[in-house]
Design a protein that fits this description.
Layout lengths: L7 H6 L14 H4 L2 E4 L2 H10 L2 E3 L5 E2 L5 E5 L6 E10 L3 E6 L4 E7 L9 E2 L5 E2 H5 L3 E2 L4 E3 L9 E2 L5 E10 L14 E5 L5 E4 L5 H10 L15
Parallel strand pairs: 2-15, 11-12
Antiparallel strand pairs: 1-4, 3-11, 4-10, 5-8, 5-9, 5-13, 6-7, 13-14, 13-15
Length: 226
């Protein structure tokens, strides 16, 4: 599997499951929350090839889009949903075209400014979040360290793991004292990706064009080609 050897550091730092919270001893409003990744089969297709995501100065949307189904929330409680991206390891990579594989090119660049992307519908009650797919289609990735548009800042040629967080909005006046109990975090290994300014693996390019409904203009008219 292309790129599978790059993930060792991540598995050491995060639990090896994809639908359970990272921390225990949580508030009852978050202990029962379960999250299912949408388009999981497509994500797995990309992961087998070594997923790449374009980063630009202006910001670029992800494809596949990060979408989830949520269950187990308190229907009347309010929640904030957000995402962040953490480095898989401390390495910078380069793509070897002759072997169609990623190779370590050195130590990682200085960590980009850490940001959280809040879902624009936050906060909302559990019943609203659970009734439909939650999509982070407005999230954009950038390599502009001075970005002031709120995009997620990533270093090109570095590998990242998206994380999804569910935060219970505690109405108690001293809620800050329980902040560590009021959230659950989730991650899906198949959503890992390499940040790039241009696609390196031509098979990733082909799969993106073939599966992205917004890439029709790039699609060949010869169906046999795909």
């Amino acid at each position: 599997m292309a790129g599978s050897h790059l993930s060792g550091h991540l598995e050491l730092s995060l639990p090896c499951f994809n639908t359970a919270p990272l921390l225990n001893s949580k508030a009852p409003q978050v202990t029962g929350v379960r999250v299912q990744l949408e388009m999981q089969a497509l994500w797995q297709q990309f992961d087998q090839l070594g997923t790449e995501m374009i980063v630009t100065k202006a910001g670029r949307r992800m494809f596949p889009t990060f979408q989830v189904r949520i269950s187990g929330m308190d229907p009347v409680a309010e929640y904030v949903l957000l995402m962040d991206f953490i480095p898989v390891d401390d390495k910078r990579y380069r793509y070897a075209f002759h072997s169609s594989s990623w190779l370590v090119a050195g130590r990682a660049d200085a960590v980009a400014p850490s940001r959280m992307h809040f879902h624009p519908d936050s906060p909302a009650r559990g019943t609203q979040w659970m009734k439909q797919t939650v999509s982070f289609d407005s999230l954009k990735l950038t390599n502009n360290l001075l970005d002031d548009n709120g995009h997620m800042i990533l270093n090109s040629m570095h590998r990242y793991q998206p994380r999804f967080h569910v935060v219970y909005v505690d109405p108690a006046p001293n809620s800050h004292l329980n902040a560590h109990r009021n959230f659950s975090s989730f991650f899906f290994p198949e959503t890992r990706f390499m940040a790039v300014t241009a696609y390196q693996n031509h098979r990733i390019t082909q799969l993106k064009i073939a599966s992205n409904p917004f890439a029709k203009g790039f699609r060949s008219t010869d169906a046999q080609e795909w």
